[in-house]
Amino acid sequence: MPDTQPQETEKRYDPKDSTLKFVNRPDEITGDNDESRLRAEMSCGHAVDPNSLTAWCRSLMDQGQYVFKCPALKNGTTQKCDAVWSYDEVRRVALLTDEEKAHFEETLAVLAAAEYCEFKQCPGCKTCVEREDLTNLCVLCTICTAMKGNLYQFCWQCLKEWKGAAPRSDRCDNEGCTNQQLNTLRSCKLVSLPETMINECPQIRACPTCGNLVEHDRTGCKNIRCNRCQVEFCFACLETTAACQNTRSDYFGLCAKPVAPRQTSIPVWRKN
């Protein structure tokens, strides 16, 4: 995780911004009641200032949390609201700068990846086993190995005792061992994104950061935010939104690169 943070700047709402609901109430994060400052209402109904919202969410990330929750107290109680704010809402209402967005998104992805683990039930002893190497389908069960007195490995994909050479990332030698998600990526149909210039684009994509399968709802721009790692990427060229935009592409036009074909492998979410 980066040690440096983007420098904070004083931010103020544009009173003409029709995408926000402005309210005449104190900031319910800090209690500030400066009448010269506009405050916006979050989805939970509490009022915030873009600076306090940014600072609060950054403090949560500094504590290793990647879920943003409202700290305001419910009316007339000492109970916290604790409503969950999506990153998209925070990004919009906090008026995050490009530097802040990059910092937030990288930090959120790292925090989520650190917590994300894969567990499946061993076909031998039925206990839950974690797969530490996400690039290898051959997984060792230490309990079965100790009980049987010899090495016991099983396939993470078909959940049968491992057959064949290892390590492998595609399949073992058991009959019928196939990756259904990969089959979906390879066989999905091609679609257009009606509000963009993108045509003949695979309907299903594996997130280039974590491998999560996502589908574009075919409204709005060509970018999509992964609901697992929270990284935003271009559904057409599979670059991150920031990288795609750096090539002078726009949100609705063609990318500098051609539309990426159907994916034939699933990216592995690296834990750093």
From TrEMBL:
Transmembrane segments: none annotated. Pfam families: IBR (PF01485). The keyword Metal-binding applies. Residues 23-259 form the RING-type domain. Keywords: Metal-binding, Repeat, Transferase, Ubl conjugation pathway, Zinc, Zinc-finger. SUPFAM superfamilies: RING/U-box. InterPro entries: IBR_dom, TRIAD_supradom. It comes from the Eukaryota. Residues 1-33 are annotated as: Disordered. Residues 8-33 have a biased composition (Basic and acidic residues). One of its GO terms (molecular function) is transferase activity. Signal peptide: none annotated. This is Uncharacterized LOC114660434. It comes from Erpetoichthys calabaricus. The lineage of its organism: Eukaryota, Metazoa, Chordata, Craniata, Vertebrata.
